[in-house]
Amino acid sequence: MEGLIMAAQLLLALTILVGLHEFGHFIFARIFGIRVNKFYIFFDFLFPLPNVLNFALWKKKKGDTEYGLGWFPLGGYVDIAGMIDETKDASQLATEPEPWEFRSKPAWQRLMVMLGGIIVNIILGVLIYSGVKYYWGDEDFTKQEVNKKGIFAYPLAESIGLKTGDKVISINGKDYKTFSDLRASITGENVTFEIKRDSQNLEIAVPNELINKIAQKAPFIEPILPFSILKVAKGMPAEEAGLREGDKIVSINGKPITFYQEIQPLIRKEANKKIELGIERNGTTMKIFPKVTSDSTIGFNPKILLNSTKMEYSLPEAIKVGSSEALAVIPQQINGFSRIFKGHISASNALSGPVGLSQMFGGYWDWERFWRLTGLLSMALAFMNALPIPALDGGHVLVLLYEMISGRKPSEKFMERTQQIGTFILLGLMAYVLFNDTIKLLF
């Protein structure tokens, strides 16, 4: 069931994003009087073979345009009259250009048509980010709150010299506001943490290659989380042993416990065994003996006692903050590609396919998480489509810029060949990420 929910969320997000992306091309074509033969969500053929398995789940003709829902759930397209794309080749454009065709329009108008999808995805991303800020706001731990107890260092953080209890004072000599700022800083290059450990001030350099291990979902740092028991699951060992809401776990098998992250490593070692749980209840200390399940749980939810800060925004504030965060995704994407080429992170860890993306949405429906991820994907889709790869919008834009600068229009045969090369590149990339997804899923 969780897998279906993940897939449904990804499918809905991509339907929204691709549908509006194609609408961007469609609306600019209409503005300039260019005929659009088809507007499809998903493909009504076996992509990339436009003449194989041609059928639609639904279609309706209105004016010159056929609107439809294809059967092949991968993207979507608009068939713009007089333009070489995944649905037609140069042989279909052998006649003289008609005034309502793409190829008969000035280069600047064709450029705007090609940029239409990217423009709409950026606008959509800004709107989603702003809407999320306005409706849900933000919740985070401030630097001051985190440094009351310090950070919890997972083994990966310990490998570069960080220790649990360290207090991060600054990043590259600059102050920061929230734990999210601290966590996000590790995606940069040549990062140094200035920390306070006991009475010492130290500098810890973050290796550029660390991002590769973090991309493999290896945990790095968290705030130390003091806690009590918020909820005990019915029928689970914790309830059967007598654990109650409001209890505080103070020891496991005689080892003192002061924060939440200490629990799982100890319980993991005791799967299918009884453990001694020291608890504090209303000022009294007692012991209970739950049996750990085979998947290393005893069945409770924690109440985190570290105070998070809720930030709410007026509509103008939400637009300002949301726009800033949305547009910041573009340089982040550029930085990510740069670090792939520099060898800091492998492409297999940096690129996610359908499985990896669906896992990001999670196994239950959370509208806040859905819209946050959809906003992120909208900005990422705008960036990816702007790459100067033939068959992507960026490839068409590059050719049109050449035409505008040189005054020479490439031949239809040249456009057909570049489209074929671009499609081959995209298919290779798709095969790579699908293979990569499968390997991650299996291993």
Automatic annotation (TrEMBL):
It comes from the Bacteria. The gene is rseP. PANTHER family: MEMBRANE METALLOPROTEASE ARASP2, CHLOROPLASTIC-RELATED (PTHR42837:SF2), REGULATOR OF SIGMA-E PROTEASE RSEP (PTHR42837). InterPro entries: PDZ (IPR001478), PDZ_6 (IPR041489), PDZ_sf (IPR036034), Pept_M50_Zn (IPR004387), Peptidase_M50 (IPR008915). Its EC number is 3.4.24.-. Keywords: Hydrolase, Membrane, Metal-binding, Metalloprotease, Protease, Transmembrane, Transmembrane helix, Zinc. The keyword Transmembrane applies. It is found in: Membrane. The chain crosses the membrane at residues 39-58, 111-132, 376-401, 421-439. Residues 229-283 form the PDZ domain. One of its GO terms (molecular function) is metallopeptidase activity. It is a multi-pass membrane protein. This is Zinc metalloprotease. It is an enzyme of class 3 (hydrolase). Pfam families: PDZ_6, Peptidase_M50. Its main location: membrane. The keyword Protease applies. Gene3D superfamilies: 2.30.42.10. Its cofactor is Zn(2+). Belongs to the peptidase M50B family. NCBIfam families: RIP metalloprotease RseP.
